[in-house]
Amino acid sequence: DIVMTQSPDSLAVSLGERATINCKSSQSVLYRSINKNYLAWYQQKPGQPPKLLIYWASTRESGVPDRFSGSGSGTNFTLTISSLQAEDVAVYYCHQYYSSPDTFGQGTKLEIK
Amino acid sequence: VQLLESGGGLVQPGGSLRLSCVASRFRMSSYAMSWVRQAPGKGLEWVSTISDSGNSAYYRDSVKGRFTISRDNSENTVFQQMNSLRIDDTAVYYCVQARGSGELFDAFDMWGQGTLVAVSS
Question: What pLDDT does residue B9 have?
């Protein structure tokens, strides 16, 4: 199984500041023949199901604010929130769908400083 | 457009439950469907996936032989039969849809609200 490791486990950022969450996979999730990374990011607020933010490592889902961006390739990925808003307080998960079983990172809890 | 799960509840170890997930206002027949669970206070864990046609199914090792995912595209519904339930199966079970039509390996772009399965004596 591909192990997904996020860092940090928790993060406190001031409103308007940048938040960066990292995700490392135990093996590459890049499908070289089509040059796509099988990596997604989700946001989960308390009492709600997760919401897809980013897929193919860097493609923003429709309706997601452009302050959210994804980057990286192979085994190292980053979710960046360029200017933190109060409504961004949540737990964020990365997810690899390159091979079965799908696996998720342990989650990163983002709070306001 | 939404997914609505049902069938969760409290069951004793060794018992069975059947979860259902109905899609409203879209045809799920073109999409692979999955179940993802989340134990109380814990992270997300993929459980099972069924292809759009229903011809292929995949399971995490810990549920193989105990859980069965199926679908009825005419009823726009996906099921998960869960037998020999264990305490560590306790979780909220989410029904989720793959983002791309016909894609088996894809991000999950639609999630139900979840149904709680509690296994306890």
Answer: 97
Closest Cβ–Cβ partner in A49, A52, A98 for B105: A98
Q: Is the peptide bond before A8 cis (omega within 30 degrees of 0)?
A: yes
For chain B, which residues lie within 8 Å of any Cβ of chain A, measuring from their own Cβ?
34, 43-46, 49, 58, 60-61, 94, 99, 105-109, 111-114
Q: Which residues of A touch B61 (CB under 8 A)?
A: 101
- Find tokens 């093996």 and name the residue: A27
B81 vs B89: CA distance, rounded Å: 13
Compute the distance between CA of residue B67 and CA of residue A15 in angstroms, rounded to an integer: 45
Of B45, B107, B99, B50, which is closest to residue B77 (Cα–Cα)? B50
Burial B105-115 (b: 16+ CB within 10 A, else e): bbbbbbbbebb
pLDDT tens digits for range B52-91: 999 999 999 999 999 999 999 999 999 999 999 999 999 9
HSE, CB side, 13 Å, CA atoms: give it for residue A58. 10
